């Protein structure tokens, strides 16, 4: 149950400061307590725990609370020390933590969903707790009265949520791969737009209210940046993970994006450069290079007495090409392709060696990451996953800022 402490060698990769162990099942959420050497964790083992770093350097649970149902999501508001815990049964429970983080009082239960809660956010100014769930809906409830204010239903499970506190816009990702932008009002909501670009379910969202950018991660292993403020839709596609992207965090100060995937991959993307947007794939009945017909183009196959070919796409120009005209593979980081992808032979010739220089750094978290959160002011990150282990990282060697960390092993 005690945490393991690691030394801090100088390096240009994340430094593992501590491992917190003790949960009996998947840790579904872990959050760093601002300005404290502490972590709050919620787990499928039905426990909510607050871990504080003792004088010995080890983390011990100062609060250990067992819930009625597995914990699936969590939100913590530090200024008011209120915790909202979503459960597998659809309920959200609110607690208040004491100033010394050694005691926690139950406040109320919100009947938010009919099924597993997938994400929660709390807005102090409106006193709303907003959540999404596997009952295919977003709900917002009044924290003063505990009553339901409104609900909106989607066609598939709502998997993740981001909220703009100033404008009351909510972004909801779902299992169909769609992101819905909603404007929430006191008892109603309106759908502003839907964003479609992923080929798999949306697993994570991050909203930057300053630049008005939305980042989405999905089970298709990719990240998309959406320019919401400029109303441009999809502007960038980032591909560097080999498994589903489970969590993302954009650091506005350094223009860096941190992402984590289910295979333990941790990526830090440089967003402070002018990137190229990946082209939309073009449709054609024949290769746009050699004009040979594709296999469904029966008329041209008959006319030319040739067998049809499989259709592929060049990732750089988007043209529909056959295998013979796209024999090469190349990375092209400026367009977000950090590993080798199919390009047509003419695009391959146009890519210089310096164009293949990576614009991201990749690191190994060495555990299945299902959730990540960052304390950007201290350059700290916490990851957790199905191995029941919570890891605390010093990210300052890789996120371009040398902010003092309270989690040093000294």
From TrEMBL:
Domain FYVE-type: from-to ranges: 281-352
Q: Which UniProt keywords apply?
A: Endosome, Metal-binding, Phosphoprotein, Repeat, WD repeat, Zinc, Zinc-finger
Question: What Gene3D superfamilies does the database record attribute to this sequence?
Answer: YVTN repeat-like/Quinoprotein amine dehydrogenase (2.130.10.10), Zinc/RING finger domain, C3HC4 (zinc finger) (3.30.40.10)
- Segments annotated as WD repeats: 20-51, 195-228, 238-279
- For whether the record's keyword set contains Iron, the answer is no
GO-annotated molecular function: zinc ion binding
Q: Give the subcellular location.
A: Early endosome
Question: Please, one GO biological process term?
Answer: positive regulation of toll-like receptor 3 signaling pathway
- An annotated GO cellular component: early endosome
SMART domains reported for this sequence: FYVE, WD40
**Pfam family of this protein, just one?**
WD40
Say if the entry is tagged with keyword Metal-binding: yes
What is the predominant subcellular site recorded for this chain? other
What the protein does comes down to: Positively regulates TLR3- and TLR4-mediated signaling pathways by bridging the interaction between TLR3 or TLR4 and TICAM1. Promotes TLR3/4 ligand-induced activation of transcription factors IRF3 and NF-kappa-B, as well as the production of IFN-beta and inflammatory cytokines.
Name of protein? WD repeat and FYVE domain-containing protein 1
- The organism is Corythaixoides concolor (Grey go-away-bird)
